[in-house]
Design a protein that fits this description.
The protein is 44% helix and 12% strand. The protein is of the alpha/beta class and 344 residues long. It folds into two domains: 120 residues, Muramoyl-pentapeptide Carboxypeptidase, domain 1 (Orthogonal Bundle), CATH 1.10.101.10; 212 residues, Zn-dependent exopeptidases (Aminopeptidase), CATH 3.40.630.40.
Length: 344
């Protein structure tokens, strides 16, 4: 493979939903490796010690989903659920049932996908699953993931640290959710620094309904400011987390309605935290510590209280039926109690 120029790397990163740096870091290198595989280039199967990754796996998952086979999230990883979906497909078309996507299975798959297409079963499943959980928060499991504060350490802020800010907000949010009967898990304590994979593993072990990751950004130019949210999605593979996208939008709207943080909107990304966590996961970037206005706001306890309440309301709105929902910025915690949406 020829060496890519920084502009080519940036273009690739942007197209894949990665952080655009122009540098081939570990994540970009892995994405470049995944991008070189097309369906039919190799046989796909459960492998050890690491599972097979690639665009060919994502294409396979997309085609299985279109035909109604449940392989879970389209993540480009050939795991046990994808293998089970392949076995079900093999059984339905009369080829050897072994959970491996080899030549015979690919031929059958390509033949059928020319006549069976359309719809979005995985979106429907995710939407129905979320609705079936009901509006009450008392039976929900939510994982809060305050950042370690390791990003952009070389860029100086205004005297407050990301790790302290997001941990404080997570604790304020934890208290409110516990009062509403939610089971809450934090991915770290005040002083420890788990790896991203350890955070993902914790979230997956809890069988969470929702994962919220909190960050504060930095930038060399002090004019950068505002709040942004991110959910799992890729235009390249035509996939989005329905619940993740909706929740990211709700968080974005509630925070912007209740504060004067600039709206930097919601965005689809394939970052590992969003991709590898089984539950719908949203990352919230709460402003820039390198912007004097954002830093001043985040340094105030009353402002962090508003952020916590905004997110609680966004969580409740996620589970409310549309006819029971309220306009952005209108719901209050007292409204949740009056509606009986908590345990007493």
């Amino acid at each position: 493979m020829k060496e890519l120029t920084p502009d080519e790397v940036r273009s690739f990163q942007q197209g894949r939903g990665l952080t655009v740096t122009g540098l081939v870091d570990e994540v970009t290198s892995r994405a470049l490796e995944e991008a070189r595989w097309k369906l039919g280039d190799r046989s796909l199967h459960i492998s050890t010690p690491s599972l097979m990754h690639g665009d060919d796996v994502a294409t396979l998952q997309n085609r299985l989903v279109e035909m109604g086979f449940d392989c879970g999230r389209v993540d480009g990883i050939y795991g046990t659920r994808t293998s089970s979906a392949v076995s079900e497909f093999q059984k339905s078309v009369g080829v050897t049932v072994d959970g491996k996507c080899g030549p015979a299975t690919i031929i059958a798959l390509l033949r059928l996908t020319t006549i069976v297409s359309g719809g979005a079963p995985i979106r429907l499943r995710e939407d129905v699953s979320q609705k079936n959980r009901g509006p009450a928060l008392a039976d929900k499991v939510i994982v809060l993931d305050p950042s370690n504060g390791g990003k952009n350490r070389g860029v100086t802020g205004f005297g407050i640290e990301e790790a302290e800010i997001v941990y404080d907000i997570s604790q304020r949010l934890e208290g409110r959710l516990l009062a509403l009967g939610v089971s809450v898990f934090l991915t770290r304590g005040k002083d420890n620094c788990p790896t991203q994979q350890e955070r993902v593993d914790l979230a997956n072990k809890t069988s969470a309904d929702l994962v919220i990751s909190f960050h504060v950004d930095r930038y060399q130019n002090q004019s950068a400011h505002g709040v942004a949210t991110y959910y799992y999605g890729s235009d390249m593979h035509s996939l989005h987390s329905v619940v993740g996208e909706r929740f990211a939008s709700l968080v974005q709207r509630e925070i912007c309605a209740r504060t004067d943080l600039v709206n930097c909107h919601s965005h689809a990304k394939v970052w590992d935290l969003l991709r590898l966590t089984k539950a719908p996961t949203v990352r919230v970037d709460l402003g820039y510590l390198t912007n004097p206005g954002d830093a001043e706001r985040l340094g105030r306890a009353d402002f962090r209280d508003v952020i916590a309440e905004s997110i609680v309301i966004a969580i409740q709105r996620l589970y409310l039926a549309s006819e029971d929902d309220a306009k952005t910025g209108m719901l209050r915690l007292s409204d949740l109690r009056k509606a009986g949406l908590r345990s007493n």
